[in-house]
């Protein structure tokens, strides 16, 4: 898997970040099952809570294109330190990470990056399995 290509796509999307409030640009890029790369940036709002992170922008764009399985994701935020995905984005990644673990590439640039697994950064995630278990037991 070409991590550098994914990082470069994230860096390029980062340029489109809409960040008038934080000035903190983030870009993300996911590798879909069909080999396509789908990227996204953070989009802020005057009502701060309406802000969407780069990771979720990329994932939601992919889903809107019919790509529901993520094979890897790269994230570039601050260019001088490593920017980890927030908790909400980690949870959204799990939803589309096709049963299990995917590499999460946390990058400063194409040369300096760390590869974590989703399980490493979100152990014991809540998944749809928990919902179906509860339904089977009619525990509702
Ligand atoms: O992994 C991250 C962390 C933060 N942000 C965004 C949200 C907000 O626009 C800005 C500051 O939190 O950075 C992301 O897009 N991804
Ligand atoms: Zn986030």
TrEMBL record:
Record GO biological process: nucleobase-containing small molecule metabolic process; pyrimidine-containing compound metabolic process
GO molecular-function terms, A-Z: cytidine deaminase activity; identical protein binding; zinc ion binding
SUPFAM superfamilies: Cytidine deaminase-like
Binding positions (substrate): 42-48
Protein name, entry field: Cytidine deaminase
GO cellular component, one term: cytosol
InterPro entries with a match to the protein in the record: APOBEC/CMP_deaminase_Zn-bd, CMP_dCMP_dom, Cyt/Deoxycyt_deaminase, Cyt_deam_tetra, Cytidine_deaminase-like
Active site feature: 55
Biological role stated in the UniProt entry: This enzyme scavenges exogenous and endogenous cytidine and 2'-deoxycytidine for UMP synthesis.
Needed cofactors: Zn(2+)
UniProt similarity note: Belongs to the cytidine and deoxycytidylate deaminase family.
Binding positions for Zn(2+) per the UniProt entry: 53, 86, 89
Organism: Youngiibacter fragilis 232.1
């Amino acid at each position: 898997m070409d991590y550098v290509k994914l990082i470069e796509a994230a860096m390029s999307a980062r340029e489109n970040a809409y960040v008038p409030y934080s000035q903190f640009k983030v870009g993300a890029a996911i590798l879909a099952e069909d080999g396509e790369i789908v990227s996204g940036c953070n989009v802020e709002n005057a009502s701060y809570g309406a802000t969407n992170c780069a990771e979720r922008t990329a994932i939601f764009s992919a889903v809107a294109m019919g790509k529901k399985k993520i094979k890897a994701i790269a994230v570039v935020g601050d260019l001088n330190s490593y920017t980890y995905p927030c908790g909400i984005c980690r949870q959204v990644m799990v939803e589309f990470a096709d049963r299990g673990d995917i590499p999460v590439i946390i990058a400063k640039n194409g040369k300096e990056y760390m590869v974590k697994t989703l399980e490493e950064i979100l152990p014991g995630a809540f998944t749809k399995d928990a919902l179906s278990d509860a339904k089977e037991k009619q525990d509702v």
